[in-house]
Design a protein that fits this description.
Layout: E1 23-29, H1 35-48, E2 51-54, E3 57-61, H2 64-79, E4 84-90, H3 96-130, H4 136-158, H5 166-194
Antiparallel strand pairs: 1-3, 1-4, 2-3
């Protein structure tokens, strides 16, 4: 009697990667009141770069910094919010590429917000040039805006441990903003020299 062999497809094969990612998984529950506790946890997790796998279950790549921050958050949930929280480390048996894609998509969304602000920055400078509003006040305001964008980028970049593809695009956009600001500054200085 011939045995039936099931053919193995790529979907059936275990995922293999050169280096398996270790994940931090926070499972928590906080009391429904006051609602500010839930909002605080959500905000902290978002600022850390964690993504929600489902309600009250968040994951992020494990690094020394992320582990320290997640331990502190877990402690805060238990000690100050009268909640329950479990912090686990894990590696994916299957679906690792999906996890990476979810985390990178979250970073891409953040990078896209920065790109939107870069476009706004260019529009603002173009408006000032069109109206020939070459003042030190405008220059200072635009320098502050650029510094905020650079700071925001550094925060997102710090939590982008998996290397989102949009990081390079944002870096290039910020270089473009810096160049545009330098050109605007030259016009401000020229306007001052003419007066």
């Amino acid at each position: 009697m011939a045995s039936k062999r099931r053919s193995t497809t790529a979907a059936d094969a275990p995922e293999t990667t050169a280096k398996r990612q270790t994940w931090l998984i926070l499972i928590y529950r906080v009391p429904t009141e006051p609602t500010r506790h839930r909002a605080a946890v959500w905000r902290r997790l978002r600022n850390l770069g964690a993504v929600y796998l489902q309600n009250s279950v968040a994951a992020m790549p494990r690094t020394a910094d992320s582990e320290r921050a997640m331990r502190a958050l877990r402690n805060e949930i238990v000690e100050k919010m009268d909640g329950k929280a479990f912090l686990l480390t894990s590696s994916a048996l299957a679906g690792e590429s999906d996890m990476v894609a979810i985390v990178n998509a979250a970073r891409d969304d953040e990078y896209e917000e920065i790109l939107d602000k870069c476009r706004d920055f260019h529009r603002e400078l173009s408006k000032e040039v069109a109206t020939e509003h070459f003042t030190y006040g405008e220059l200072e305001e635009n320098e502050e805006d650029l510094n905020k964008l650079l700071g925001w980028f550094q925060k997102v970049r710090a939590r982008d441990s998996l290397g989102s593809s949009k990081a390079v695009t944002v870096e290039q956009a910020l270089v473009g903003c810096s160049t545009a600001l330098e050109e605007f500054a030259a016009r401000v200085y020229a306007a001052e020299d003419e007066s």
